[in-house]
């Protein structure tokens, strides 16, 4: 089994993650919505994102692109040591027990028959893993998972009641988890748990590892109540082992559950120290680029969106907490830059322009360090900066920046929601740039035309994103403010 774990881990480290064609907010959302119709789990994920779907979809699309680029550069690796630890501790140290228990399936053949059965099983597993490895290296994760699942069925019928099958189920669960197939991943994780409990007992460290994996899958699926007792039991078992690296993973997820249950920013902040301590240990033992680390960050990131749906204060606290974790992983990463952009966009939508500026400036600098000026994410930051300037007092900068991004998004897609938002910002800038010496009648006409353009732009955004989307509600707020400031009645429904 050591060979099986190692080869699959190495193959996943060498494979290329799927790359989403466009990483702009709206393009990512369009891709997300189109693909969501093909499977239930993506539909469920889209519902969880709610009115913040655009921001979260952009983050997911960008993370996939980052993984793809890192794979090309040879910097992305799968946590091989994480997968090997459980096998090294349990299958090697408990080989006598495993052989004794497995020998029952070779009744009548004696010890030689049991050994022969074990050799045949190992040879079959080697062939199965070789096939899965080849598919993973070809970036065919779905096919690799299917081959592994079919192989498990065949081996289970040929070699029933063998402890080695638990690790194959565990590997299948991981592949399915990476592919977002949470329900299927949970089935294999449950199988791995049941086999391990049968051979090694409910209190064995390997059982703790199986409970941990099932618990993390439940968290990824949004089944937090089901996850809590699994993770609590796993960490209790793993805490009895000296320096078990998986203990920090279990503790991290328990702190994520505490964030999910928080009702105030103070309760969110109370989990920060524990999250950071466990995350530091994960980084030290698994490495910053391991997929286990990335999955843990993704679990916390999901709770940021949930917290933001609860309240701005709760979401802001979770955002800052997530940024602190990303800084521990890589303070210069593009992923951190995108999170800062998301925070800045949230500030912008809630008329917190003084907070939006610094976050956007830092996020933009990080993204420019990774991408050329014409890259979608750099353009995205330029666009948001233009909107911040338009909502504030710098109408000249707003006109320049949004004029450029308007053309950028119009070229990408007809009716692009960010093109509509650029039109909204340009109309705001025109009102704020009106000459105060202009005759009142002319000024009223110009303001009326600009407000009408803002209403039309908001209608286009609402059609593309939904009336309750963060950017639509934020734009409506600025329209209402501008109408009051200029002495014009706010349009009905704004």
From TrEMBL:
InterPro entries: TPR-like_helical_dom_sf
Region described as Disordered: spans on this chain: 96-117
Bias (Gly residues): 105-116
The protein, known as: MalT-like TPR region domain-containing protein
Species in which this protein is naturally found: Tetradesmus obliquus (Green alga)
High-level lineage: Eukaryota, Viridiplantae, Chlorophyta, core chlorophytes, Chlorophyceae
